[in-house]
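Researcher: Following up on the earlier apo prediction. This time include the ligand. It's pyridoxal-5'-phosphate, with the SMILES given after the sequence.
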Amino acid sequence: MPGTELFGAEERKEVNDVLETGIMIRYTNDNLRNGHFKARDFEAEVRKITGAKYAHAMSSGSTAVATALAAAGIGTGDEVIVPPFTFVATIEAVLFVGALPVFAEVDETLCLSAEGLRKVITPKTKGICLVHMCGGMADMDAIMKVVNEHKLILVEDAGQAFASSYKGKAVGLFGKAGSYSFDFFKIATAGEGGVLVTNEESVYKIADVYSDHGHDHVGTNRGMENHPVIGFNYRISELHAAVGVAQTRKVPFIRQKNQEHKAFLTKALSQTPGISFAKICDPKGDSATFLNIFLPDTEAAKRTVDEMNKAGVGGFNYWFLNMYHFINQWDHIKELKTASKLPVQVLGAPQDYKNLSLPKSQEVIGRLISFGIRCTWTEAEMSDLASKVSACVTKALASVHA
Ligand SMILES: *Cc1c(COP(=O)(O)O)cnc(C)c1O
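Model: Understood. Below is the ligand-bound prediction.
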């Protein structure tokens, strides 16, 4: 959670600008806000880092990905390919826009693979909601080949990959629309917040309208604005946007530190037999929020987790057993337990979610352990962590083979 490590005077200054006027909404009251437009400033900072033509700040990464899907034209009955390894918000967003999730395999990139996509594409496939996991990026050359070959709509949930890029292009900008999360656990935080990005003006315009009850934001009389499409309230508050402004300005520094720290740990741990690393398709573009290691198999990973818990090593995630990041624990989705009926329940699911066969994803995520990189780490702290992890792995592997 690098952003939260650096929370300080800059964030307080931006928030105080808003508190001084009390204008906590991004729209209206232009004469009373002392010239402060924090949501607009937040969007400008995100455009600066990503090179996106358009950025639209919203209430969360979840509402941003749902809006990205809708603005890309994905809706009721559309089959959308999704990964079984993601924060569950991706799947919720697909379901809530009325679309039908189709699960495909991820690989050692921790993202959907071109091979996985090809296996599930049918004439009914409308799009892909690609997720760039653990601060990294999917293999975009291979993915784009599939997207273009089958003329699919690509939407990117880059919830955990703000400030990541592939061959010089920010993730989130490869498809029609992309989204970043600025929740409390991401590289930069607004407390709660998300930003949609796109290079297409028409997509941006729909997102802008859709996320604010249809308001077209033309003119100075909010009550008299036109409403070209039905929308909802996914607005970000000026207080959250203010935090987002200060945090986003710190991201180039955070990414630099993260990359240095990830390189240090990678070097230290590559000496340990049994440890390998997730595939990083463009190391220069890595936001490096996580160091992702592989153990030889799931059993070895589980034993390593046990050893690390015993040794008091913190700051890691074993996603395979996580309730919110891996499909094995998503009983509520597999059984479609809903508060009220969703389109998927009326139209029928395109796959038997309870009996999916995703052996590659099971194998890859089963042996994955991710360490959150801290941008404030000292070399001594990293050396200590590396030697502890190394010892735990060695012990775990000895017990597996015993
Ligand atoms: C964090 C995250 C989200 C959701 O973001 P919130 O801001 O918490 O709503 C969506 N997708 C992915 C991949 C995420 O990691």
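Model: The chain has a mean pLDDT of 97.
Researcher: Noted. I'll compare it with the apo version next.
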